[in-house]
């Protein structure tokens, strides 16, 4: 009789290999590993898996915060910006919010209308520019965000505090270096209007 693998076991095995470079790039088409020790390659795979676990935890926290606050991702980014502004005494205008969020003026107006109807923000005359408005978060939303999402997000600080100063410098360099490596520059496939190759076609 032919042994049939348990589908759940097969899935677990595939998941375990997702960040194993030998499984993802067996022919070294993406990464030349010829001069590396196998144990170093394996450890890098473990590091990538740890980053994935962090991203998963961040997504779970983000999804939970959106459900709790009954808002979308852009709304939550706007509220975070307004919370920081309130702590630093900065005056936030619709234009500043639009620039921070990377959305149009029209989209910002719609968002602010929605947040104002929900009791999350207030719009007042700007204290020094009569042509502008000042946006601020309401005390109730500020408190709700700080005591739930904000408190959970703040726990990241504890993980960083448990490192030595030298370890933190290493982590900072690593994260900045990885950011530089994956930042899109002039890659043709990432440009607006670029299409993926048709099935069967060579890239």
Care to describe what's here?
Helices cover 60% and strands 5% of the residues. The chain contains nine helices and two strands, in the order H-H-H-H-H-H-E-E-H-H-H. A hairpin with a 7-residue loop joins strand 1 (121-125) and strand 2. Helix 3 runs antiparallel to helix 7 and helix 5 (94-101) crosses helix 6.
Spatial shape: extended
Mean pLDDT: 89
Number of helices: 9
* Major β-sheet annotation: 2 strands, antiparallel
Intertermini distance:
43 Å
Task: Assign a percent range to the helix content.
Answer: 55-70%
Relative strand content: under 5%
Oligomer: single chain
Class by alpha and beta content: mainly alpha
Order of helices and strands: HHHHHHEEHHH
Radius of gyration: 23 Å
Regions with little confidence, pLDDT below 50 for 5+ residues: none
Q: Order the strands across the largest sheet as they lie in space.
A: 1-2
User: What's the total count of β strands?
Assistant: 2
Short description, anyone?
The chain is mainly alpha-helical. It contains 9 helices and 2 strands, in the order H-H-H-H-H-H-E-E-H-H-H.
């Amino acid at each position: 009789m032919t042994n049939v693998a348990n589908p759940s076991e097969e899935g677990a095995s595939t998941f375990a290999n997702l960040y194993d470079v030998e499984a993802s790039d067996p022919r070294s088409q993406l990464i030349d590993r010829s001069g590396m020790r196998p144990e170093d390659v394996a450890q890098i795979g473990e590091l990538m898996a740890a980053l994935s676990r962090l991203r998963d935890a961040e997504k779970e926290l983000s999804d939970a915060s959106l459900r709790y606050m009954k808002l979308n991702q852009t709304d939550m980014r706007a509220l975070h910006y307004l919370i920081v502004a309130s702590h630093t005494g900065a005056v936030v205008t619709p234009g500043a919010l639009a620039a921070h969020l990377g959305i149009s003026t029209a989209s910002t107006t719609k968002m602010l209308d929605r947040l104002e109807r929900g009791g999350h923000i207030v719009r007042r005359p700007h204290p020094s520019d009569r042509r502008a408005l000042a946006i601020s978060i309401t005390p109730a939303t500020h408190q709700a965000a700080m005591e739930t999402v904000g408190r959970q997000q703040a726990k990241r600080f504890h993980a960083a505090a448990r490192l030595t100063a030298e370890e933190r410098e290493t982590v900072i360099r690593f994260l900045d270096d990885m950011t530089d490596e994956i930042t899109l520059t002039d890659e043709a496939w990432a440009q607006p209007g670029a299409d993926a190759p048709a099935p069967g076609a060579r890239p």
